[in-house]
Amino acid sequence: MDTLELLAHPVRLRIVHAMRGGRMLTTAQMCALLPDVSKAMVYRHVDVLCGGGILEVAEERRVRGAVERAFCLRQDRAVIDAETAKSLSLDDHRGAFATALAVLAAEFHAYLEQEGADPAADLVGYRQHAVWLSRGELHELIGELRSAIAPRLANQPTSDRARYLLSPILFPIEEPPTDSATA
């Protein structure tokens, strides 16, 4: 199974999100982070991600006669590179987008189900902005977003950091007007 297939399942993608930031988690800890997903499904998808090389066993220890494994994410394997993205069909993009939306909806639902969830206090945002951009301005915006986000991807969990899901989604919704339409 290639990386795209591995990441194209909502539960597997949620597991990958849970593992980001250099975390080392047991399957039981992953189950606690995904309370809306059955334990059997989490175990099955952890196994698939390990088999695909996206997760690896970082530590093993004996707990009451059983072996407990802690996993870590192989950052280099949990990414769709530019060449792969270019090779995707329109249907592949539809499927990937549907997976991203399913993950976003599931994570938001899980957040709202937490005791004490307070979207206003937590600064939850889901605004959409329609902006007109030239190709150069689009590249500039993407570069600015990457510059703002990339350094924070390496943040490690600490007692004063909450984990956030940031999902920039960008696509054209309208072609540039013809010169006669702008006159």
Sum up the structure in keywords.
Arc Repressor Mutant, subunit A; 8 helices; mainly alpha; single chain; 183 residues; 3-stranded antiparallel β-sheet
Describe the protein.
- By secondary structure, the chain is mainly alpha-helical.
- It has a domain at 3-120: Winged helix-like DNA-binding domain superfamily/Winged helix DNA-binding domain (Arc Repressor Mutant, subunit A, Orthogonal Bundle), CATH 1.10.10.
- It is 48% helix and 11% strand.
- It has helices at 3-7, 10-19, 27-33, 39-51, 82-87, 90-113, 135-153, 179-182, and strands spanning 24-26, 55-63, 66-73.
- It has a three-stranded antiparallel sheet with strand order 1-3-2.
- The longest helix is centred in the middle third of the chain and has 24 residues, at 90-113.
- The radius of gyration is 19 Å and the shape is globular.
Give the secondary structure arrangement, pairings included.
Layout: H1 3-7, H2 10-19, E1 24-26, H3 27-33, H4 39-51, E2 55-63, E3 66-73, H5 82-87, H6 90-113, H7 135-153, H8 179-182
Antiparallel strand pairs: 1-3, 2-3
Helix pairs in contact: 2-6, 3-4
